[in-house]
Structures are given as structure tokens and as C-alpha cells.
Amino acid sequence: MPTPIVSKGSTTWNGDLFSGSGRTSLDTSGLGTFDVTWKARAEESGGGTTSPEELIAAAHATCFAQQFSLELAQNGTPPAELRSSAEATFVAGEGITGIHLTVEGQVDGISAEDFQRIADSASTGCPVSQALKGTKITLTASLA
């Protein structure tokens, strides 16, 4: 049985939701601390601060690429390269309304139809997609 791996992140928030700000940390890896604000989340993204949705998008893009690479290898067509991204849409008062995954891959010996079929399987099968089952997840997949 695999050993459970626990990953940790944390945030310190100061002030109220709309005028406050915080710092979120990738505690397990120690790879970074990032500023977070309501403005970056609900009004205007970018500008040197991040949001929970950006962090979810990065996690989803990574998880999907890992799952897709596994399923392609199990198909006998391991990828030379996969470039994946995720866009998480947040609407204030509604929450995360959707996530769109995009992948472009260099995979020898696979048809476009099989690439799409396996991408669809990986999109629903990756653990982050499983955790986000209540969210509409869409996918665009193409061979390079």
C-alpha cells in the first residue's frame, strides 16, 4: 500500500476581505510565498498578487499532465513533451464556475483520435479533477 503524502500550504490574512491582504506559502516544498488579495481574485488578476484560483489552475495543469503522461505510456505511446495549462474562472458570489484545460503534445505513433480519447480520460481521472467534480471541466487537446 502506498504511503500517504501530506502536502501543506498556509496563509496569513490581515484585515477585512475587500481591503485586506495576505501571504500564502508553499510550506511542504518551501518554494515560495505569494501575496494574495481580493482584488486579484475578483476584480483584476495579475499585478504581482495571486489568488486561490490561480493556485488551483497551476495544480490542475500539473496533475492533468502527470495523469495524461501515465495514460499515454500505458497506451504504448509515451509523450516526448506535454504542454498543459488550466484556466480557472471565478465569479464573486458564485465561486469557481469552470476550469478549462488545454494540452498540446508531442507523441510519436498516436492518432489524433487516440490522443483526444486518452486526454479526455486523463482529464476526468486526475486526482485534482476528482477533487473538483462539482466544477465544469472542459478540455482542448491537440498534437504538436
Automatic annotation (TrEMBL):
Annotated GO biological processes are: response to oxidative stress
Source superkingdom: Bacteria
Query: One GO molecular function term?
Result: peroxidase activity
Q: What is this protein called?
A: OsmC family peroxiredoxin
Classification via Pfam families: OsmC
PANTHER family given in the database record: OSMOTICALLY INDUCIBLE FAMILY PROTEIN
